[in-house]
Amino acid sequence: MQETSGYDPNYVMGRSTAETDRLKRQSQLYDASTWQLLREAGLSPGMKVLDIGSGAGNVSFIAASLVGESGAVVGVDSNPAIVAEAASTARSLGLSQVSFRVGDITAIELERDFDAVVGRLVLIYVRDPAALVRQLLEHVKPGGIVAFQDLDWGEGPIANPPSPLLSQAWGQVREMFRRAGLNNRMGLALRGVFVAAGLAEPRMSLFAPVGGGADFDGYDYMASGMRSNQPHILKLGVATEAELALDSFAERLRAEVVAANGVFALPTFVGAWSRKPPR
After folding, report:
1. Positive or negative: CA dihedral 53, 98, 23, 266
2. Quick check: is 62 in a domain?
3. What integer pLDDT is reported at residue 2 of this predicted model?
4. How far apart are CA 58 and CA 269, in angstroms?
5. Is 183 helix (H, G, I), strand (E, B) or coil?
């Protein structure tokens, strides 16, 4: 790969055990939508897939379920600890067709015979996502698949009735993204990224888990996300630790929503896929 200024290594969610746990919780809530995106994009048995920013390996495992034992999935992430955990999980699941590599996606040596490149919640952390996608296309065969799923953190949460605590937390994270120089609307920006990278108009979809009641997993997921974001929220001066009060956040949000007999949507993921132009 050639050098590019498109990659931002400052992952605002942090690199911690708490963040790894958040990623696992996220998997339970969002993996079905990622599977649907990759299936519609055309991942099929025998394909070789590159998963960038592979994290704990959830997207790689979804891809493996679609390409089967005759296919191959290569995940790349810059965090050695989470790569080791992903590799251990792959072994425990018997997924011999899945491998993981540690490295900066803009610098690591990779083959140029992939049938697809995929990623979830990656481009939001990139200063020039179109440049990175163009670079990744060098490793994809002509006609190969490009599929990404990213966050669209809008102006406010979807909730009925409105949740004051959720709205407050939502605003704090949105302001953190703004001060960090990240595009909190990257999900809906995927269309422009794909076109700027020289791809055809992508097919796109939108997904957000919705729930209420005492047993909804969304309360703990929002709390885990706030906990992973807390260091940057504090560093950027968005809120104080006392204002966040994360030790009680999940229970306070649960009590507020249950008392109002309400429902709310978790952050929206937008998926987009297209194909590399043929020769």
Report:
1. positive
2. yes
3. 33
4. 15
5. coil
In CATH, what number is assigned to the domain containing residue 140? 3.40.50.150
Task: State the pairing for strand pair 140-152/114-120.
Answer: parallel
- 98 pLDDT above the threshold of 70: yes
| Count of structural domains within the chain | 1
Residue 6 lies in a domain: no
Q: What is the pLDDT of residues 245-269, one digit of tens each?
A: 999 999 999 999 999 999 999 999 9
Number of CB atoms found within 10 A of residue 141's CB: 17
Provide the β-strand partners of residue 151: 269
Answer yes or no: is 41 within a domain: yes
Q: Residue 10: inside a domain, yes or no? A: no
Nearest Cα to 51, choosing from 41, 42, 62, 40? 62
On the question of pLDDT at 91 being above 80, the answer is yes
Residue 238, domain extent: 17-275
Residues in the chain: 279
Question: CA dist 232 to 55, 173, 175, 224, 237, Å?
Answer: 20, 9, 11, 14, 8
Q: Is the pTM of this model over 0.70?
A: yes
